[in-house]
Amino acid sequence: LPIMAVSIFKMGFPETILFLYSGLHEKEHGLIKRLVDFVRGMGNIVHHSSSALYVAMIVTHVLTPTPDVLSPLPPLIMQHWFVLLKYNYKSLYIIIAISLEVWFEWVSFSALEQVHKIHWVGGILVLSMVFAHWCYFGAGLISLVFLREKEELTGRDKVLKLNQMKSVSFTYNPAELSDLNAEEMKEEMEECYGKITNTNTAHTAANTDHSVVRNEDC
User: Fold this and answer.
1) Which of 111, 115, 139, 145 can bridge 122 by disulfide, Cβ–Cβ 3.0-4.6 Å?
2) Tens digit of pLDDT per residue, the chain (218 long)?
């Protein structure tokens, strides 16, 4: 259970935080893009919390592991097997994902009554996981119809965005840094690195005791 809690929330659920932050505060994005990100973020919160509690209830035997209780789990697990296909085989990924989603919702609604009889919280968790998947499906449909270009955050973009959201040891104030876009941050860091490199090179060549630009000065 501890490993599941840590892994499912990505060591602090950065994807959830970034989606919600984008939906609520990213003014550079359009209204539809912000709506899509917010819906995805809400889906992540509901899905991750519900699935973690559902598994915990099974492990602790609050929910008896009957076929009805376990039947929604295989399609959920299998959906994660094919996630990487979306980067190079998008059409194939969409077909597989929708097929597994139909399977998941079919068995979820079929088992809902029996799961609810075992424990009422189990029934709520099944419905909340279905709701989370509707959030994903709705966000994907809106993005497919209204957003011509898919705007996915790359790994580097996520790091830059996280750095904007926390206090850093630059001379910028956090309020100023929140308005600083990724390209401006890149230019500032390159300029800073150039100062450090050039000054250190000149200092070494002259073998003098001139002051060197410090990282803190940038």
Assistant:
1) 115
2) 677 766 676 665 677 777 877 788 877 778 888 888 888 888 888 888 888 889 889 999 999 899 999 999 999 889 888 988 888 888 898 899 899 999 999 999 999 999 999 999 999 999 999 999 999 888 888 887 777 554 454 455 556 666 665 544 444 444 444 444 555 655 666 665 555 455 445 544 444 444 444 444 44
DSSP 151: -
Verdict on whether the full-model pTM lies above 0.90: no
Cα–Cα distance for residue pair 141/131, rounded to 1 Å: 15
CA contacts within 13 A on the Cβ side of 3: 0
Q: What distance in Å separates the CA atoms of residue 74 and residue 15, rounded to the nearest whole number? A: 24
Measured between its terminal Cα atoms, the distance across the chain in Å is 43
**Tokens coding 171:** 């001379």
Residue 116's closest CA among 128, 108, 124? 124
What is the total residue count of the chain? 218
Q: How far apart are CA 152 and CA 140, in angstroms?
A: 12
Residue 57: which of 143, 100, 116 has the closest Cα?
A: 116
Residue 66 to residue 63: CA distance in whole angstroms:
8
Cβ proximity of 133 and 40 under 8 Å: no
Check: CB of residue 159 under 8 Å from CB of residue 84: no
